Recover the amino acids of this structure.
């Protein structure tokens, strides 16, 4: 069960009004900044971002706790070595975003484009991904506990040295997904997907 962000109330603000404050807490932001904004060495806590383009917003050394991103563009943002706890990404664009060596707990991703995402050495506990593209993404040396996938496009995504035991891929597109031997052990697929995995292992199916 994925825990939802704990957000009871927020105060609507603009980036320019709060960027210099010590805390980034309980804000709702629905307007893009008019200039380059830098958010550095902060924990973004109990906040909602709606339709925000983060292209002109630098996120440097930022943790996320109880945060909702709705309709946002977080492409090429770096969350390496950071904490994400009870975070939702809904209808978001996150091309090339990286979570290398980060800790992800109770995160939901829905109806989003996560092409070229990097989850290398990421510690994942309780993550749900639905109706989302993860084309050309990377899971390398990742630690995964409770990953739930529903209608996810995993074309050309790599799973290497990552334990995927009991992860259900049966509703997702794995037609060109790359698994190594370790990552394949214990995954759940349906009968339609099995010929691809058998072929990837170099096994030929004899037809009657």
């Amino acid at each position: 069960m994925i825990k939802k962000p704990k957000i009871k109330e927020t105060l609507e603000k603009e980036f320019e009004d709060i960027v210099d404050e010590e805390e980034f807490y309980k804000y709702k932001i629905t307007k893009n900044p008019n200039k380059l904004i830098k958010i550095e060495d902060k924990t973004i806590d109990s906040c909602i971002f709606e339709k925000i383009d983060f292209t002109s917003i630098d996120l440097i050394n930022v943790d996320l706790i109880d945060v909702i991103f709705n309709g946002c563009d977080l492409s090429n943002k770096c969350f390496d070595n950071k904490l994400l706890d009870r975070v939702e990404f809904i209808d978001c664009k996150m091309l090339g975003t990286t979570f290398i060596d980060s800790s992800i707990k109770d995160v939901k991703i829905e109806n989003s484009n996560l092409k070229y995402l990097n989850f290398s050495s990421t510690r994942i506990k309780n993550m749900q991904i639905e109706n989302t593209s993860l084309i050309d993404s990377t899971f390398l040396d990742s630690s995964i506990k409770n990953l739930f996938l529903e209608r996810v496009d995993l074309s050309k995504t790599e799973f290497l040295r990552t334990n995927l035991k009991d992860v259900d891929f049966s509703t997702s597109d794995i037609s060109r997904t790359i698994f190594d031997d370790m990552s394949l052990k214990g995954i759940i697929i349906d009968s339609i997907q099995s010929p691809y995995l058998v072929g990837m292992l170099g096994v030929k199916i004899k037809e009657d």
Notes: The chain has three helices and twelve strands. The chain has one domain: 14-200. The first strand starts at residue 11 and ends at 12. Residues 194-200 form the longest helix (7 residues).
